[in-house]
Each structure stands twice: as structure tokens, then as C-alpha cells.
Task: structure prediction
Amino acid sequence: MSTLALKNENKKTADKRPLPRLSGFGRVLPGLALTGVITALALWLSDIPALSHLGLSALTLAIVIGMVVGNTVYPAAKPWCEDGVTLAKQRLLRLGIILYGLRLTFAQIADVGATGIVIDALMLCSTFALACWLGQRVFKLDRDTAMLIGAGSSICGAAAVMATEPVLNAKAEKVTVAVATVVIFGTAAIFLYPWLWHLNAQYHWLSFTAAQFGIYTGSTVHEVAQVVAAGQGVSPDAENAAVIAKMIRVMMLAPFLLLLSGWKSRKEVQQGGQNAGMRNITIPWFALLFILVAAFNSLNILPHSWIPSLITLDTVLLAMAMAALGLTTHMSALRQAGLKPMLLAALLFIWLIVGGAGINQLVQHLFG
Result:
């Protein structure tokens, strides 16, 4: 082989080599830096009066900017940034939710109380049952796909989908489809719910206070992060009530998974399956820690001068999580999901908005 041919062969081999991977903190630094830059831009834009008057909070702007970057230049930077973006979307989000407890006290949680628990339970059961019935009977989807979409819509979005997957032993492509529907409609809710609040305030269709609208938001919007962003677009009272109602809903994930696992085990026993038995259950510990932090905050132990700085830190963490969520939201997910799963998720989204409003009004009237 000639020297020139050997050089060309070596060049081709080098081109096929995987990109070098950083180690340790260096692996997550580029992604964290990217989400940090998007967060700084979102925080700066949120202080512009023209944008703040539109209800565009820092969290909403962070996800919008993240989606723009994610569908344009981010794919080229993904090999270096993916680890840090994943960390922001998962770990920083959970840390942000835990620290969110510093904004709340048990007195505020008690205001949501039994009303929020009943509403969340009714929304979870009705939405999941509707998903199973529509998915299998109307759209002829397989059981796992319908259940995964139902879990994501009825409890806590992608986290519920991922937690339900090992219970059902579902295939990876079905999980991807379910997560795509959650991201698409949950992201739409971030912008839709503040708009619905302002429309209702103008036309007085339903008797919602800001706190009651927050419970409605927390009981019907998919992801925790999306609830925070949607609530922030309404008012602080709505945001606080939304997060409390959502965290109650998130904590229902553990009993839901236990019941689902028991049902699956009985089905396998009836069918003579070899893998019957209880599966690993994912407990949302961050939701429990959120309650503990709120309880700690209720004791007034922390110096009051610390609270504003910690709340600012919390906002930054949540905005970075929003930016990461935007970066990983791709328009191709619409095509990947397919028509039938998208139609199912769309009908569930309509139920969450319309049926959720009805259930919220009914329960709040009964408990009021």
C-alpha cells in the first residue's frame, strides 16, 4: 500500500473514532454552562416590562430559548453537552423542587389540604382509566403504550412514564412515544394555562381564585417543571398552590405503581407467566424531601436574611432545568410519536383541561 493510500486509510479510521469523552466534573461542565447561559438570558429577558406583562416568566423563557437552541445548534454540541444537560433536567430539577419548600409553610399546604388530595385522586383515576379505554378500544393501541401515555398524563409526566416502564416491562420505543406526548402537550400547557387564567378573569366563566386556579393547574398539568412554569405565569399564590397540589399528585405515584404491579402480577399468574411477582418500585423521594423542607421552613429556624438568596438559587436551578428540558425537546418527536398516540394524548389533554376544571369546581364547591 502506498504512503498516500495509508494516510487516507488512517484518516478514515480516525474519522470513525468516537469523540473523546471528558471525565469527572468535566463531563457535565459544558452542558451545565450551556443551560447556565440560557438561564442568565432568560432571567435578563424576564425583567423587561414588555415581556413580564405578557406573563413570560424566567422559567417559561428558559424553555422557549432552550427549544430554539435545541432544534438548531444544539445537535452539533450534544456529544459534549449531553451529560450536563441530563444532570440539569433530572438532578437540578429535583433539587429545585426540594428547595421550593422554602417558599412554603405547612399553613399554606393545609390550605390545599383535603381538597387537593381528593381532586388529585379523582384526576389520576379518571385520566388513567380514560387512557386505557380510549387507547385500546378506540385507537387500537397496545396495552403498554396506552398505559404509559396514561401514566404520564395522569401523574407526573416523563418521570411517571419512566417509573411505570419496569412495572410493565415495556419496550424502549413505547416509552419514547409516551415521553414525547408528555413533553409536547405539557409544554403547550405552560403557555395555555396563564392565558386561560386571564380569559377567565375577563369573562368570569368559572369562579376560580388564584389559589384555586393553582390547584387546578397542579392537578392537571403533566410535569412538575411545567406546573412551576405555568403557575408562575399566573401569580405567586397560584404558583404556590400549583406546586403543592402537584407534589401531592407526585406522591401518589408510589401507591399507583404498587397497585399496577399487583394487577400485572395477577394477570401473569392467570396466564401462567414465569415472571409473576412484585417489581422494583420507584418512590419519588424528592417529593417527600419537598414536604420536609416546607416543614422545616414552617419552624422559622433559618435567618430571614437567608431566604431571598436561597429562593434566588432555587429559581436559577429550576430555570436551568427548564433550559435543559427545552434543549431535549425536538420537533421530530411529533413525527416519531405517530398519529394514534398523539390523538390519544390530545384527548387526554382536553380532558385534563375541561374535565379537570369541572372536577376542581365540583370538589371545591363541596369542600368550600
